[in-house]
Design brief:
alpha/beta; 8-stranded mixed sheet; 4-stranded antiparallel sheet; 12 strands; globular; binds iron/sulfur cluster
Length: about 325
């Protein structure tokens, strides 16, 4: 693994104006992503975990510049994506692809598997019909699909096979950086491990860099080199995978670890200590956004926003007390 960042996210914010609760109230801001810093090195798998509504998917779209940030920047190979010309951005997008959560809705039902996988090649004007057909067959083989099924439609495939079509489409342009947004959460548990193993295999063979997103800590732990923990639009902790369970120290990470069920006897307890709902991103708590659910909260937690700080190599944390 080389050690130069492919993606550097700096003080990134995405605030959406939404209607107030009454007819005459002013619009308020929904702080989906609120000052996030994250660096992803070439060839690594950065796992991103957090409950639904914590801003993970918005961060994914911002990382690929599918949305404009309210503030802050995303650097791709050291260059701010906002400074790219349209032509440069189009070229950069070849190197940055996304695998979507839902293999049912992310594939056009009117196109064959082959046409879906070929589409990015056509959009970028790559190859002629014959060479594209050969590439589609090759891609289908790479992801474990039978190339003879290129003329079938998505509904003729199983859920796992449909996700393989989505992965083949994402790989068609030979990207460097792939955002996998909950790539296995819509699949049966029995299929999840197959898709995770496929993604790991492809990462190794093609030297890909992943931002791998899941609400399931066990899945993220299984695949990642580093694990980033997000809560209510903010980064709580970023820690190396090695010894994650003993190193992770943020109270929110601790709660996620306790909540994550494990099969092994003597493993982590199954009961969750994480009580209550995640607060609204329209009116997040003052100070530390986790304080309303944190069993360790003190008065300082309501007054000051904890900054994400390095506490040792490969470990950053945003907490006043840890
Ligand atoms: Fe809990 Fe305070 Fe740390 Fe936030 S800053 S996680 S409220 S102890």
């Amino acid at each position: 693994m080389e050690d130069s960042p492919i993606i550097s996210i700096e003080k990134l914010k995405k605030h959406y104006p939404v209607k107030g609760t009454s007819l005459f109230s002013k619009p308020v801001l929904l702080k989906a992503v609120d000052g996030v810093d994250l660096t992803i090195e070439q060839g690594e798998i950065m796992g991103l975990v957090g409950e639904s509504g914590c801003g993970k998917s918005t961060l994914c779209r911002l990382a690929l510049r599918l949305e404009e940030p309210t503030k802050g920047s995303v650097l791709f190979e050291g260059k701010d994506l906002s400074l790219y010309s349209q032509k440069e951005l189009r070229l950069a997008r070849r190197s940055m692809q996304m695998i979507f959560q839902d293999p049912y809705s992310s594939l056009s039902p009117r196109k064959t598997a082959g046409a879906i996988i070929e589409e990015p090649l056509i959009i970028y004007g790559l190859g002629d019909r014959k060479s594209r057909a050969a590439q589609v067959k090759e891609l289908m083989k790479e992801v474990g699909l039978d190339p003879d099924q290129a003329n079938r439609y998505p509904h003729e495939f199983s859920g796992g096979e449909r996700q393989r079509i989505g992965i083949a489409r994402a790989l068609a342009l030979k990207p460097q950086f792939v955002v996998a947004d909950e790539p296995v959460s819509a699949l049966d548990v029995s299929i999840q491990a197959q898709i995770v193993n496929l993604l790991l295999d492809l990462q190794e063979r093609f030297g890909l860099t992943y931002l791998f997103v899941s609400h399931d800590l066990n899945v993220v732990e299984a695949v990642s080199d580093h694990i980033a923990v997000m809560y209510l639009g903010k980064m709580m902790e970023v820690v190396g995978k090695r010894d994650f369970e003993v190193s992770a120290r943020h109270p929110y990470t601790e709660a996620l670890l306790t909540a994550a069920p494990v099969a092994a006897p003597g493993g982590r307890p199954v009961k969750s200590v994480l009580e209550g709902e995640i607060p609204s991103a329209v009116a997040p708590p003052s100070g530390c956004v986790f304080r309303t659910r944190c069993p360790y909260a003190e008065s300082v937690c309501a007054e000051e926003v904890p900054v994400l700080r390095q506490i040792r190599p490969n470990h950053k944390i945003a907490c006043h007390l840890r």
